[in-house]
């Protein structure tokens, strides 16, 4: 069956409704036409020069990212800034762009379910702001940190003693530093997030909860594979006649 950008948008809307996006967000179709046919889709965390080149090489007619562009109103379409260059590149290449941002964060399952699954948590419960809390079978903070570093592919800043016993893990991918108090109120032994200010992490630790700062991109990248998997299947449950790739050109973890 043939697929259009509009149909891909509606498929995303089924599992991550765009009505769930925050007021300040810019999720949705950001480039291209709803009627444009799609034979190949490239899923990525961010739109950057490498992702655009990869889409061209893979003959994808659509890029689906987590993070949007065009947050601020543009008054020109010049190519001597990064966003303008990317927009012109999309237009010249005839490639569309959809962003699934806070709508995917707030969906169930969503971005943080992918992170929880990657870390092997069980009995996972959803809470406000997309936070998830679950149980780990790894008994100490040090062991869990090393496990998370292996899964997420990079070093993690740790606030807490390696020998601290843990069970309940709260997590919020991306910039979740403001929500450490909520994690503590939920009874978490450790809070894992992408970014947290040093003083907020110390405040949480002083109140008895350990904190792991794992990197914005690293904590959201597991969701890109979830996104690609969801796009493999059409709304009627039949596999679409469309190639869906996960980008290999991510710049940061």
Could you characterize the architecture of this molecule?
The chain is an alpha/beta fold. It contains ten helices and 13 strands. It has helices at 5-15, 49-57, 82-93, 102-106, 111-118, 141-152, 180-185, 198-206, 216-220, 222-231, and strands at 3-4, 28-31, 37-38, 40-44, 62-65, 96-99, 122-126, 132-135, 157-159, 168-172, 190-193, 210-213, 243-246. A six-stranded mixed sheet has the order 7-8-10-11-12-9, with helices on both faces. It has a five-stranded mixed sheet with strand order 2-6-5-4-13, with helices on both faces. It has a two-stranded antiparallel sheet with strand order 1-3. Helix 5 crosses helix 10. The model has no long low-confidence stretch (mean pLDDT 94).
Features:
single chain, 5-stranded mixed beta sheet, 253 residues, 10 helices, elongated, 34% helix
Rg over CA atoms, rounded to whole Å, is 19 Å
Q: How many β strands by DSSP?
A: 13
Give the oligomeric state: single chain
User: How would a textbook summarize the main sheet?
Assistant: 6 strands, mixed
Structural class: alpha/beta
How do the strands of the widest beta sheet line up side by side?
7-8-10-11-12-9
Could you outline the blueprint of secondary structure elements for this entry?
Blueprint: E1 3-4, H1 5-15, E2 28-31, E3 37-38, E4 40-44, H2 49-57, E5 62-65, H3 82-93, E6 96-99, H4 102-106, H5 111-118, E7 122-126, E8 132-135, H6 141-152, E9 157-159, E10 168-172, H7 180-185, E11 190-193, H8 198-206, E12 210-213, H9 216-220, H10 222-231, E13 243-246
């Amino acid at each position: 069956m043939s697929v259009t950008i509009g149909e891909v948008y509606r498929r995303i809307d089924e599992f991550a409704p765009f009505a769930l996006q925050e007021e300040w967000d810019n999720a949705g179709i950001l480039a291209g036409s709803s009627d444009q046919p799609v034979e190949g889709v490239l899923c990525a965390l961010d739109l950057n020069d490498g992702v655009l080149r990869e889409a061209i090489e893979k003959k994808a007619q659509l890029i689906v990212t987590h993070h949007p562009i065009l947050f601020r109103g543009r008054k020109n379409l010049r190519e001597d800034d990064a966003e303008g260059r990317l927009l012109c590149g999309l237009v010249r290449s005839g490639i569309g762009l959809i962003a699934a941002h806070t709508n995917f964060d707030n969906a169930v399952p969503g971005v943080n379910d992918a992170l929880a699954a990657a870390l092997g948590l069980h009995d996972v419960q959803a809470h406000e702001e997309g936070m998830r809390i679950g149980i780990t079978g790894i008994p100490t903070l040090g062991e869990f940190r090393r496990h998370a570093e292996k899964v997420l592919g990079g070093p993690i800043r740790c606030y807490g003693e390696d020998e601290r016993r843990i069970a309940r893990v709260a997590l919020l991918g991306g910039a979740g530093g403001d929500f450490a108090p909520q994690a503590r109120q939920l009874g978490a032994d450790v809070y894992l997030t992408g970014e947290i200010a040093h003083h907020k992490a110390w405040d949480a630790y002083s109140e008895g909860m350990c904190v792991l700062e794992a990197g914005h991109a690293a904590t959201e990248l597991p969701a890109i594979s979830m996104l690609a998997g969801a796009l493999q299947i059409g709304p009627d449950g039949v596999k679409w006649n469309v190639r869906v790739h996960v980008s290999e050109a991510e710049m940061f973890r």
